[in-house]
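Input/output pair, single chain:
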Amino acid sequence: MLKKKRNLVALSILLLLTIATITADVWLPVSPGFIDAAQRLLPPSGTFWFGTDHFGRDVFALTVVAARVSLTVGFTVAVLATILGTITGLIAGYYKKADFIIMRVIDGMLAFPSLLLALALVAALGGSVTNIIIALTFSFWPVMTRIVRSAVLQINSVQYIEAAKTSGVSDPVVISKYVLPNVLSPIIVQGTFIFAKAILAEAALSFLGVGVDPSTPTWGNMLQESQIYISIAPWISIFPGLAIVVTVLALNMLGDGLRDSFDPHARKNKKRKQHFVKTKIAS
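Output:
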């Protein structure tokens, strides 16, 4: 996977951002919470790379530190949704009786847009990092369940799994030893996409005013606060917005790279499509 420059660039961006935000307290020259009224709304310069906001805070420092909440929420939601979705997907795909009940619940949840469902849950639970993680996990878990169930149904009739069942091997052993390892590829790929979607959803909730406490630096909170200054100080909105775009794009690129690495058929079909497009353009 790392042989392709695109995948290497995506992984490098994510690693650099993670390391930068974890060690921000060590290397940042200015605290993100430091307020200097005399330096309000200054444009990007050698002193303030991303300029300053309406309180005189360094936008660069805020953008770096704000990544902590966004990455924490995205990663935690991806892990929790993947675990819950994998468990329910394995049960639904393996046991026909449980399949009907689980999938009717999943279909009912998927009838609502994930962001709308998360918005309703956060409004009911209250705005905090923990509640946002719970709401987003509840919103993205059904998608993982459906993908895992679909993958399990495809391999349920494979000969070695049928042989394991008929030889008297218990269901938990069959699921953990034979079924789960063969559905890990779509699980990992979908997990990276949920990571990206959770970052976007957290930013959207914070932008709407129902997310993390406004005093906590997040990319969504920065965008929400900068609305009224966008005409006179657009850099306050541009840089956190770019941070979201770059991070989500890197995660999507990484997910595409993982999918191509795990699924040789998808890679072959992609190459055929590219060849077909090139042939059409040349003709």
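The radius of gyration is 23 Å. Residues 5-15+65-282 form a domain with the MetI-like fold fold (CATH 1.10.3720.10).
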